[in-house]
Design goal:
It is built from two helices and four strands. It is α+β, with helices and mostly antiparallel strands. The chain has a four-stranded antiparallel sheet with strand order 1-2-3-4.
């Protein structure tokens, strides 16, 4: 495979991975709390691509116990080497802000 062919293949794989992560963020399967937060969604998403992972930074919005919340979040999606299957996921968010907005913590 020539250098140009390898670059095209890598670009295609990167696009596939971004499409997979976008679909994952939009699916109900991404929202583990969808029963308690039926309108939970990700907005203002920014993607960062590395060799075998995609990081998504986003605002997590929704309603719980009659209260709206917005929490800045991030998720790292790890892919199988050279493949298009997610093999790991790590989520990060500001728990203190989240709990304060839900009325579970007082400042």
């Amino acid at each position: 495979m020539s250098g140009n062919d390898a670059r095209i293949t890598a670009e295609n794989l990167t696009k596939q991975r971004l499409d997979i992560v976008r679909a994952h963020l939009e699916s109900a399967g991404y929202r583990p709390g969808c029963t308690g937060f039926p309108d939970e969604r990700a907005e203002n998403v920014h993607y960062h691509v590395a060799e075998d992972s995609v990081v998504a930074e986003f605002d997590l919005l929704g309603t719980a116990t009659g209260r709206n919340f917005t929490v800045r979040s991030a998720a790292c999606f790890v892919f199988e080497a050279g493949g298009d299957r997610i093999v790991g996921e790590r989520r990060y968010f500001d728990r203190v802000s989240y709990f304060e907005q839900l009325g579970l913590l007082t400042g």
